[in-house]
Amino acid sequence: MATKAEVLDFIRIYADKMAEHRQELTDYDQAIGDGDHGINMSRGFKAVMEKLPTVEEKNIDDILKAVGMTLVSTVGGASGPLYGTAFMKAGAAVKGKEELSNEDILLALDEAVGGIQFRGKAVEGEKTILDSMIPAINAIKASLADGQTMAEALVAGETAAWNGVEYTKTIIATKGRASYLGERSIGHQDPGATSMAYAFQAINEVAQK
Ligand code: ADP
Ligand code: MG
Ligand code: MG
């Protein structure tokens, strides 16, 4: 279960994290891309924070859609349309909701993955955002199926997300700019998988409050 206040809290905490880890994410992208991932994400979420006061009285779906549209319109590069679509799809999945059930949360996460895959045509194992996101969602589902609470499941989700980030060090990038490096991308962690792991960290922090 998540209230609108918790959804807003998640967005604010994630925006803080993108500012805080701007250099770190950029450094990862420097190694295998064009060195702008932290710049892109922090710029996008700075714009989101400016937009948020104008939509925070609306339903959760409108808030998530506004986040997505802001990201698409302010972030150049792969991550803007990918994260933007994820937030827009998550919003569309919870239309009219002022509060989210566990089922709503899972649906929103699944739709977000679907949006990223529709846009980017990637599957797991290509060294992308999906390599932390899909394992995190699978872990959350497995924990809930095991009878754990959502708060417990989100702890497992974050752990799986960081394990996914570690896994990206071992594989070759076959999508995005890092794919130009081929085998030389091995040994480096994927910036997008890392920024997505911070999203699950932010969700988890909200749930543990
Ligand atoms: P750009 O590569 O255009 O400079 P960013 O640096 O902001 O954009 O984002 C790079 C990240 O985007 C990569 O680390 C990767 O995780 C993610 N990414 C790139 N292409 C795809 C894709 N097709 N599907 C999913 N994620 C992708
Ligand atoms: Mg880049
Ligand atoms: Mg770029």
TrEMBL record:
Q: Where in this chain does the record put each DhaL domain?
A: 5-205
Q: Which SUPFAM superfamilies match?
A: DhaL-like
Q: Which InterPro entries match?
A: DhaK_L_YcgS, DhaL_dom, DhaL_dom_sf, Dihydroxyacetone_Kinase
Single annotated GO MF: kinase activity
What keywords tag this UniProt record?
A: Kinase, Transferase
Q: Which residues form a coiled coil?
A: none
The record's PANTHER family line, in alphabetical order, gives: TRIOKINASE/FMN CYCLASE, TRIOKINASE_FMN CYCLASE
* Name this polypeptide is given: Dihydroxyacetone kinase subunit L
Q: Which organism is it from?
A: Acetobacterium wieringae
